[in-house]
Amino acid sequence: MKLDDYIFSQIKETKRLTSDLEPIDLSLGNPDDPPDREIIRTLIREARVLENHRHPLYRGIPELKEKIAEWFFKRFKVKLNPETEILILTGSKQGLGLVGLTFLNKGDVALVPNPAYPVYRRGVLLAEGKPLDMPLLRENRWLPDLDKLSKKISSKTKIIFINYPNNPTGAVADISFLKKSVDFAVKNDIIIISDMAYSEITFDNFKTHSIMEIDGAKQRTLEFFSFSKSFNMTGWRLGFVVGNRDLINALQKIRVTLDSGVFHLVQKGGIAALSHPEKTKNVCQIYQRRRDILFNGLKDCGWEVEKPKGAIFIWAKPPWQCSSSQSVSILKKKAGIITTPGTGLGSQGEEYIRFSLTAPDEKIKQVVKRLKELPIGR
User: Fold this and answer.
1) For labeling, which of 11, 42, 137, 306 is most exposed (least CB within 10 Å)?
2) The pLDDT value given to residue 20
3) To which CATH superfamily is domain 7-34+280-373 assigned?
4) How far apart are CA 322 and CA 300, in angstroms?
């Protein structure tokens, strides 16, 4: 088994530019605004408590799990047992990366979106499993065609990854697609892995549904959430997974071998964040404003682009004929704009570029200005 270099690690290591312009980095999903002040105050206060500096509880502190259960019920009207159906993670990435080792034997198949967050595929490969592409196409609203996939399912197919609001396309899924996904999983007896890292970042009055709202979903689902994007806590490395108790236990058996739990100070910050979930509305307003600036600028420059309904990215095709890597190089060298090549997120990303919205409005406006001044694609 051989893993390619991790795309976001590559980007961090190759940010040197040949452009004379000040670089503007729109490559990573790394929020540029700070966490809420109450979250910071909680961290400082709890740092003075000696007990918080000892080994953390493996499954997470009860207070945080109870707060998650309370939030989940208010948000999605789904009841969770805090002890058995919630597990605290060192970021949702950790749990998503361990899914393959937890549920796949050598040669087992996982249905993986393409394009997608690279951790899904990498985790499957680490387990010596076989990723089976689910192409996400514009003509299908960036949703996998589950009817076509049914013909490729075998007894070796064990899990399916879904991610809405979607990274990188910004697409969202309505309740009918989630119901169809559950029916598909039940029919084929496979586990659903739902990545909800961007569940609270949506635009134009769209509200994300949890797949756990669907009858029969909890019995075969793990749904992953993150504090990184919605609460600007990326560096804190805090996430959680909810779902079937047996699946939670299986994941924890793998996780506990590699990780002793999440620093209690960080978990206390998570409690503070979920105590005021309404503050994510401000986060959404910021990203929607930036989305509109960049979307309108790209359209004016002749890019093929759709206005995303969620997440913190814009997925766009430039008006010149190049590979995605060549386009990224053009933007970096000629305009000082650092972006992510679509192929770094899967073969279906060829010709596309992912722009992150994690820069102040004025920087986004500078990006639009530089795009308009590019000597190509005009």
Assistant:
1) 137
2) 73
3) Aspartate Aminotransferase, domain 1 (3.90.1150.10)
4) 19
